[in-house]
Amino acid sequence: MAEIKKVKLSEQTADRLYEMIVEERCYAPGSKLPNENELSAALRVSRTTLREAISFLVAQEVLEIRRGKGTFVAERLPAAGLDLTGLAGMRSRVRAKDLFEMRLIFEPATVALACIRASDEELQQIRKKAERMERISAEGGDWPLADQEFHWAIIKASHNEYMRRLYPLINSAVNEILKISQNRQQMQDIAVADNRMILDFLLQRDEAGARHAMSIHMKHLINTLYP
Length: 227
What we know:
Blueprint: H1 9-23, H2 36-43, H3 47-59, E1 63-66, E2 70-73, H4 85-89, H5 93-117, H6 120-138, H7 143-157, H8 161-180, H9 184-203, H10 207-225
Antiparallel strand pairs: 1-2
């Protein structure tokens, strides 16, 4: 088994702070972050760890330090990437199929990385997301959102920055496609069954098995959308 990547606490902190700024919009562009004591307490890390995380985000042009004033969110955050929502908005079957073919390339590689790099805690978080998705599906709730949270947990556990930034854009397009799909129930059944299979391989840290399981899952979705 390949050695599990040990992620420094400062890197984990930088990742969490990035999510709060760029994805959750807890702090608006140009706004000042809380002082060091407050922010380190909120993130449950030492001030030294927080400083390292901030230095990383400064290098990424997400934060900027203004001497004598504090740490501020950049006025213009780095572009996250190509907006893919137009693929679904055009309601083109061909273009939507292209999107899922891209997921077929992208996600098997990502889950393989997660097998190698995920911490034990991250694997348990993925397990909880899979269980929650299955429970919400049984209750007739918003299973696509719960399914996305399962896949998002896998993406984060891959510890690849570019994969992590790309996935939310893919999800936006997938959401639009699901709204016009005529096979939602069949897709739900596939997602529940395939997630179990993917999770089993992940928990065993079986890189080849997880990669193959995710490939099968994407092919199932493509065949359901485009029989």
